[in-house]
TrEMBL record:
Top-rank taxon, per record: Eukaryota
E.C. designation(s): 2.7.1.33
GO molecular function: ATP binding; pantothenate kinase activity
Subcellular location: Cytoplasm
Catalysis: reaction(s): (R)-pantothenate + ATP = (R)-4'-phosphopantothenate + ADP + H(+)
Low complexity: compositionally biased ranges: 59-71
Species the sequence originates in: Ramazzottius varieornatus (Water bear)
Pfam families, alphabetized: Fumble (PF03630)
GO biological process assignments: coenzyme A biosynthetic process
Disordered: annotated segments: 24-71
Official protein name in the record: pantothenate kinase
Length: 445
């Protein structure tokens, strides 16, 4: 990469393994049948095993999935709690919508259980050892399908998914609803286990559809969701500048999760996956664990912030003695990632922080150059980067900003979004609401 700077990061906590996610929760006994369903409600077919029959719900109004259009009719009440879940290769993202008004429910126990779940989720910022609520991302008074409320953003490692399912089973979450909406690869991978363990049907929403719909919703409902960096490499002048991408179609979306997916988004409804690479966030973390002994993403980023990749990477000037002028390659451009590691002496002296930084630069460079090619190929000049690889990772965001600007001679702009890795889960929540609304039979009677 061109030039680098360091940035100290606070460690935001370690979550290695999800234990006792339910700590401190006191919920009603769900083994007893709920009160009788109200007249007019159709019961879900009584599932086998220890399940309580559940009333189904009927929608009563229509509102746009962008949440922006409030219907004059009474808002419908799909089964609560209202969640969208994105089960990715590394992290499960859970978005929970807490309506401002108290909604009528069908059974007293449901009200009680909803309240307990609500209290547990909103009064804690951590759950067990590994669950985290990103309170700084919380959004108040946002509309979804005729309701106003607060969106809460929660994540835990995908490796804790089985414990989460066990928690849902022991605490009776499944008795509130017959279906949950999930997206991400885990929606496919865990479908059978969820059905067997808690008898919940998983409505699978495609991760690309959910992502685009989540971006659209947050762009509409969160005024400063998207921004770019001005003077990204100059600490004294660098600043975040808001830039709404709401009407900026077409743009490229680069989702840096475990791997990387690249989308060309031409409108709210017209988009396609155009490229991908397996060198993504999990590559960064996996290689850092291997090379530096770091155990978590936060540790790896903190290490990288202290390191100097030039002790590890071979630069153009290490080969040319300066710039490669004919092709405008500055001397401080990385010529060969990890190129110095062929030298036994340098290898012996390589510090963990330099290695972590070199891994970060390698992965980021690769993503940046792929994004450039995709943007050039599609003839678009805005590239929106998201995914949790960018969480607490200003280093990569600034590197991408600078690279896009430099290599395109100022034509391309790198744009970032505040809710980094949560768009799929938001889209999935909207999908849940609209399924109930549309009377598809998936959530509705
Ligand atoms: N607390 C964390 N634990 C694990 N990975 C994290 C964490 N925070 C950020 N990351 C980074 O985010 C990537 C996962 O991003 P995400 O958008 O959630 O993708 P996925 O849907 O594949 O899980 C990881 O590979 C890692 O680089
Ligand atoms: C398979 C995936 C869509 C899964 O999404 P993720 O959990 O990484 O967010 C993604 O990892 C990906 O696009 N990988 C790159 C595959 C490729 O095109 O080479």
């Amino acid at each position: 990469m061109l030039s680098w700077f360091s940035h100290p990061y606070p460690s935001l906590g370690v979550f290695d393994d999800m234990q006792d996610f339910e700590e401190g929760v006191d919920v009603p006994d769900r083994s007893k049948p709920a009160s009788a369903p109200k007249p007019g409600h159709v019961l879900a077919a009584s599932p086998a095993g220890d399940h309580v029959p559940r009333p189904r719900y009927t929608s009563r109004s229509a509102a746009g999935s962008d949440g922006g259009s409030l219907s004059s009719e009474a808002p419908f009440h799909p089964p609560m709690p209202w969640f969208g879940m994105d089960i990715g290769g590394s992290l499960v993202k859970l978005v929970y919508f807490e309506p401002e008004e108290v909604l009528p429910q069908d059974a007293e126990q449901d009200v009680e259980l909803s309240r307990t779940i609500h209290k547990y989720l909103t009064s804690n910022k951590t759950y067990g050892d590994t669950g985290i609520r990103d309170a700084h991302l919380e959004m108040r008074r946002v509309p979804i399908n005729g309701h106003f409320g607060t969106l809460h953003f929660i994540r835990f490692p995908s490796s804790a998914m089985e414990k989460f399912i066990f928690l849902a089973k022991t605490k009776g979450l499944s008795a509130l609803s017959s279906t949950i909406c999930a997206t991400g690869g885990g929606a496919f991978a865990y479908e059978k286990l969820i059905k067997q363990s808690v008898n919940l049907d998983l409505h699978k929403s495609d991760e690309i559809d959910s992502l685009v719909s989540g971006i659209h919703y947050l762009e509409l409902n969160h005024p400063e969701e998207s921004y770019f960096f001005e003077n990204p490499l100059d600490d004294s002048k660098c600043r975040k500048v808001p830039l709404s991408i709401r009407d900026l179609y077409p743009y490229i979306v680069v989702n840096v999760g475990s791997g990387v997916s690249v989308l060309l988004v031409e409108s709210r409804t017209k988009y396609q996956r155009v490229w991908g690479t397996s060198i993504g966030g999990a590559t960064f973390l996996g290689l850092c664990c291997l090379l530096t002994g770091a155990k978590t993403f936060d540790e790896a980023i903190a290490l990288a912030a202290k390191g100097d990749h030039r002790h590890v990477d071979k630069l153009v000037r290490d080969i040319y003695g300066g710039d490669y002028g004919r092709f405008q390659l500055p001397g401080d451009t990385v010529a060969a990632s990890f190129g110095h590691m062929l030298d036994p002496e340098r290898r012996k002296n390589a510090k963990p922080e330099d290695l972590a930084r070199a891994v970060l630069v390698t992965v980021t460079n690769n993503i940046g150059s792929m994004a450039m090619m995709c943007a050039m190929n599609a003839k678009v000049d805005k590239v929106v980067f998201l995914g949790n690889f960018l969480r607490i990772n200003d280093l990569s965001m600034k590197q991408l900003s600078h690279a896009m600007d430099f290599w395109s001679k100022g034509k391309f702009k790198a744009v970032f979004l505040e809710h980094e890795g949560y768009f799929g889960a938001v889209g999935c929540l909207l999908e849940y609401m609209s399924l109930a609304k549309a009377g598809t039979g998936v959530v509705d009677a």
